[in-house]
Amino acid sequence: MTSTLANILFFGLAYGMILYMTSVGLSITMGLMGFVNLAHGVFAMLGGYATVTLMNSLAVPFLPALLAACILVTGLGFALERLLYRRLYGAAELDQVLFSMALIFISVAIARIFWGPLAQPIVLPHYLQGHFELAGATIPTYRLFLLIFGGAIAAALWFGFDRTLFGARVRAAVENHEMAEAVGINTDRLFALTFGLGTGLAALGGGLGAEILAISPGYPLQYIIFFLIVVAVGGLGSIKGPLYAALIIGLADTATKYLMPEVGMIFVFAFVFLLLRWRPQGIVSRRKG
Amino acid sequence: MSGQMSERPVLEARGLNKSFGSVVVTRDVNMSLRRGERRALIGPNGAGKTTFVNLLSGRLRPTSGEVFLDGVDVSRADEARRSKLGMGRTFQITSLFPALTAHENIFLALAECAGFGLHMLRSARSYGALHDRADELLEKVGLLPVSATTVQQLPYGQQRLIEIAVALALEPKVLLLDEPAAGIPTSERDLILDIVKALPGDIAVLLIDHDMDLVFRFAERITVLVQGSILVEGSPAEIAADQRVRDVYLGEKS
Amino acid sequence: MGRTATIWLEPLPWLLALATYALAPQYAPLMTQIFVMILFAMSLDLLVGYTGIVTLGHAAQFGTGAYVAGILAARGWITDPTLTAVLAMLAAGTVGLLFGSLMLRTKGLAFLMLSVASGMLLYEIANKATGITGGDDGLQGVVFSPLLGLWEFDFRGTTAFFYSLLMLFLTFIFLRRVVNSPFGWSLRGIRENDLRMAAIGCQNYRRRLIAYTLASALAGLAGAVQAQCTGFVALNSLSFELSGGVLIMLILGGSGRLYGAMFGVPIYMIAQDYLAKNDPTNWFLWQGIILLILVLFARGGVLSLAERGFQACWRKVAR
Question: CA nearest C205 in B: which residue?
C-alpha cells in the first residue's frame, strides 16, 4: 500500500511537472496577449520530436539534445509569432481559435509525413533509468529527475517573473496594456520574447516528458485538454497558479488511473467543472475580473 | 412615511466605498437626487467619477455602502436589475451594438424594457408600437434620417446621441450621462447640450463632464468629487465662488 | 435588408435537394449524412454566429441525442422514431442546461476548456460504460419501427432521406423564427456588446443559457436523426474531432446567417470524401490550409465571398 502511495506521488508529481512546463508558456502568453493559442501543444510535440531525432539519428546525448531542441523550437516560435500570430492579436476569439486549430492540423500532418504515425521511442540515458533505494523506499530515478528539474524551472521562472526588470515589465503588461505602453514598455518586443520563451519551455517539457506523454503526430490534439485545464484552473498570466494546477491534475489523474481505472478521466473533468464554477478566474489570477 | 413620498430622493448613495486592492477609489460618498433634478458631477482627472457612476449603475459592487433607487435598496442588484428598476446610463466610451442599425439599437432597449426579450416565435418586425417608439426617439435626437444605417458607419457625434436615445428608451427615472460630449468637437457640443436640456422633466439627470461651460449651463446643483470623496456640493454660483474648487481646478485645463 | 431581392432564392436549396434525389437516388445515404450535419451545424450557428458563444464541445449534445435514441431502440424500450427523437431532444437539452449552467459564467480560454471537457467527459463515460453503449465499437444494429407506423427505414435510404430532409426543414423554419424574434435580436445584442446588453436590462447569463439549451436540444435532434437513419451510434459522435469539425463546416459556409451551414457542410464533406480517400494525413493538411486561408483571407466564409463577388459584378453591370 505504501509503495502504491509512493508511486502515485512520484509518478503524479513528475507528470504534473511535465504538464507545468508544457503549459506555463500558454498561461503567460494568454495573460499577456489575450491570445487563445490552442496550438501551444504543437511546440511541445516538436520539442519531443527534435529531442528524439537528435538522439536516435545523430546519437546526441540526452541533455544536449534537449537543449538543442529547446533552442530550435524557441527560434521557430519566435518566427511564427513575428510572421503569423501577431496578425491576430486583438482579433475575435473565434478567429484565434480557428487559426490555432489550423496550426494544429498542419503540424499533425507534417509530423505524420516526416516521422510516421507511430509514437517515437525514447531511450533514456542509463543514469536516468531504473530505481534506487533510499531509506527503504524504491525511488524511480527518471521521475525524481523530473521533479528536481521541474522544480528548478519553476523556481527560475518565479525569480525571473517576480524579481527581475523583465518580469516586472511582463507583469505590468499583463495587468494593463495601455498603461505599460504609456510608460515606455515596448510591448511588441515583449510579446515576441515571451512567446519565444513559452514555446521553448513547451519544447523542454515535450522532450523531457517524451516517456510520459508519448511523442506521436496526435500529440497536440490528444493532450490539448490537459494544457487548457492547467492554464484555466491555474489562472491566466500567472506563474504559480499553473504549477499548483499542474501538480493537482497530475496527482489526480495518476491516482485515478491507479486506484479507479474504470473511472478514467471522468473524475478529473468533473472536478474541473466544479472548481471553475466556484472560481471562474482560476486559482490565481493576475487579471481583474 | 407616505407623507414623505414626494420628498423621497429618486437616487441615493449612502456611505459608498470602493477599493481595488489597497487603492481606495471611492471614499464615503453620500449623495441624493430629487425627481427631475439636473445635477452635474465634476472633478479633476482621476477623481473616480466613472467608478462612482459604475457603482450607481451596478457595473461595480461597492466595498461598502448602499444605493437606493426610488426607495428600493439596489446595493446587491446587478446592472440588468437596476436598469429594470429605472436606471439608465450612457458610457464615457461609446458602447453600442456596432453592427446593428441605429433603429435596431434602440429597438433592443425598448424590447428589453417592455419585457419582450424572451419572445421567440414572433417576428421582431411585427412589434409595431415599439418600432414607432424607436423612430420617435430617433426623431428626438434628430437622427431619424440615419435610422437604417449601422451604427459603426455613423460619425462619433451621432453615436453619442444614439447612446442617449438608447438610455431614454428604458424610460429611466434616473439617467447617468458619463461625459456625453467626450470626444466630439466643440462645435457640436451645443447640439448635445440642447438635447440633454430637453430631456423629459421627470427624469433626474446626473451629468458627468470636464467641460465647465457645459456643466454650468446645464446643472441646478453641482457636486465636486476629488480623490474619491465629495469636496463640496452646491448651486453653480456657490461652486464658482468656492475657493477650494478653484484650487483643485487651478492648473487643470477646465 | 434586401429581403425582396433574395426571396425567390429561398426554395432553391430544398428544390436542389429533391432534384438530386430524383436524378441520382444512389446518393441518398450521403445526402442524408449531409442533412444531419447541416442540422447539427445550424444548431451550432445559434451559439457561434448569433450569440457569440464559441464552443468546442457541441458534440456532447449531438452524441447524447444519438445515444439516447439508439439505446432506447436497441433495448427495445421505445422504437418509435418520432418519440425517440423527442426524448433525445429533451435529454440533450437537459445535458446542455446542466453544462451551460456550469460553463457560461466563464469566458475565453476557461470557457473553451470547459466546452472541450464537456465533450470529453461524456465521451469517457460512453467509452467506459460498454454494457450500455457498446464502448469503442459503438452501438450496433439499432432498429427503429417504421416512421409514423407507415414507412420503414429501408436499405436504399429513401425513408431516411425524406425524414432527415423534413427534420432539417422544420429546424430551419424554427430557427429562422427564433433568430428574427426579439429573443434572437437580443442574442445578437449579446454577441455585439454584452456589457451594453446588461445596461439595458438583459440578464445575459440567463439569455445565453436559454440559447445554449435550445441549441443543445437541436444538436440532440441531429444526433437522434443520425442514429435513426444509420441504425448505428459511433463513439465518435461525442468526440472532440466532431465538435471541431462541425465548427469548421459552419465557418466554411459563414456563420450568423443559417444558410452558412447549408453551404459549408456539403463543401466540407465532399472535400473530405475526395481528399481523404487515399490518405487521412492529406485531409489534416488540407483542413489546416483551408482554415488558415479562411481566417487570414476569407473571413465570413464562402457565402460572404460569394456575396462580395456578386456585389462587385452587380456594380459593374449597373455601370
Answer: B80
Chains that touch C (3 or more CB pairs under 8 A): A, B
**Contact status of C200 with chain B (Cβ, < 8 Å):** yes
Cβ neighbors of C209 (< 8 A, separation 6 or more) are C97, C100, C101, C104
Kindly compute the dihedral angle of the four CA atoms of residues C43, C44, C47, C52, in this order, to the nearest 10 degrees.
-150
Task: Tell which of C295, C297, C299, C304 to mutate to test the A interface (max A CBs under 10 Å).
Answer: C295
- Which CATH number fits the domain B2-96+172-249, given the four candidates 3.40.50.620, 3.40.50.300, 3.40.50.720, 3.30.365.10? 3.40.50.300
CA B71 to chain centre: 19
Mutate to test the interface with A, among C58, C111, C128, C284 (most CBs of A within 10 A): C284
Asked if this assembly's ipTM is beyond 0.90, the reply is no
Q: Which residue has the cell 468656492?
A: B242
Reported confidence tier of residue C233, pLDDT bands at 50, 70, 90: very high
Cβ–Cβ < 8 Å for B110, B169: yes
Chain A residues touching C109 at Cβ < 8 A: 30, 36, 228, 231-232, 236
Question: Can you say whether the dihedral through the CA atoms of B110, B112, B113, B119 is positive or negative?
Answer: positive
Mean pLDDT of A239-245: 89
Q: What is the mean pLDDT of residues B245-254?
A: 64
| Residue A225 CB contacts under 8 Å (≥ 6 apart), including other chains | C113, C116, C117, C120, C240
pLDDT higher for B45 or B64? B64
**Residue A69, pLDDT score:** 94
**Domains of chain A (ranges, CATH numbers):** 2-278 (1.10.3470)
pLDDT more than 90, % of chain B: 27
φ, ψ for residue B72 (rounded to 5)?
-95, 135
Confidence band (pLDDT; 50, 70, 90) for C319?
Answer: low
